[in-house]
User: Which sequence fits this backbone?
């Protein structure tokens, strides 16, 4: 029986799962799984922690012998002098730093605050969640999903902010949502370097109703390059006051059912084209 078998037996006798033992040691379940699979071994600090928890000696844990016990003698004397044992170098798996905090107070079965950060994929789940992967009402992480989320990749039911953002209101390098603002924006109202939506404004804008931008394509298109049923071309020197008033009137006419902030935003971009 080797180390991994002894660890497995001790853990089962204590009635612990791999995840429960990992939590006692401040590690991840994957670390304990690798120990029992024999693909890695714990460092000295973790060996001491295991020895103390299971109330066994380090000798027993590492070699299977109780402290002070002599190694078993061979059944016969070797015919030749024993050769010196080769030097074995063990490469131990190291988890790296890890920090976790979980509040005792809960709501809907979730901790109010759960912070779970480290070098590997640590998942935080709480009302307020912060982690490599985070899910919650308010979520912050490399990958974040929640009612309000902020992350490298962000999914938010109401608000999402991230390099890639998907949500009701989304802001990011690539933004997809009802209201989207980003380098590339796709949404009902889209604003960005490249914007596509029902209403769109940006460097390159394409829309099913109104588009305002350097290059615009829509039934009503306003831009330096415009393609649509009705177009208002913006010269390099900008729109004149009369042309700007015409553009504003055309936007109002094309957006009879749109909320007031949509027409205000499109008129603002038309005014910005005048500059």
Assistant:
């Amino acid at each position: 029986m080797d180390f991994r078998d002894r660890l497995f037996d001790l853990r089962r006798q204590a009635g612990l799962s791999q995840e429960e033992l990992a939590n006692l040691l401040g590690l991840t379940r994957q670390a304990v799984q690798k120990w029992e699979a024999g693909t890695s071994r714990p460092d000295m600090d973790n060996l001491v922690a295991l020895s103390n928890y299971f109330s066994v000696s380090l000798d027993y844990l590492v070699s299977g012998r109780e402290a002070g016990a002599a190694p078993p003698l061979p059944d016969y004397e070797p015919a030749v002098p024993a050769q010196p044992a080769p030097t074995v170098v063990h490469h131990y798996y190291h988890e790296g730093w890890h920090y976790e905090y979980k509040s005792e107070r809960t709501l809907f079965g979730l901790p109010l605050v759960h912070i779970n950060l480290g070098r590997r994929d640590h998942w935080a789940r709480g009302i307020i969640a912060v982690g490599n992967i985070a899910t919650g009402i308010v979520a912050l992480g490399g990958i974040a999903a929640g009612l309000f989320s902020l992350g490298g990749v962000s999914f938010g039911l109401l608000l999402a902010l991230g390099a890639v953002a998907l949500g009701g209101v989304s802001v990011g390098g690539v933004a997809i949502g009802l209201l989207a603002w980003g380098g590339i924006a796709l949404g009902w109202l889209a604003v960005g370097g490249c914007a596509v939506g029902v209403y769109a404004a940006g460097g390159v804008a394409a829309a099913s109703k109104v588009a305002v931008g350097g290059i615009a394509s829509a039934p009503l298109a306003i831009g330096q390059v415009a393609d649509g049923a009705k177009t208002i071309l913006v010269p390099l020197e900008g729109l004149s006051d009369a042309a700007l008033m015409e553009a504003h009137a055309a936007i109002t006419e094309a957006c009879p059912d749109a909320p007031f902030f949509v027409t205000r935003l499109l008129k603002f971009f038309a005014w910005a084209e005048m500059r």
The chain is about 25% helix and 45% strand.
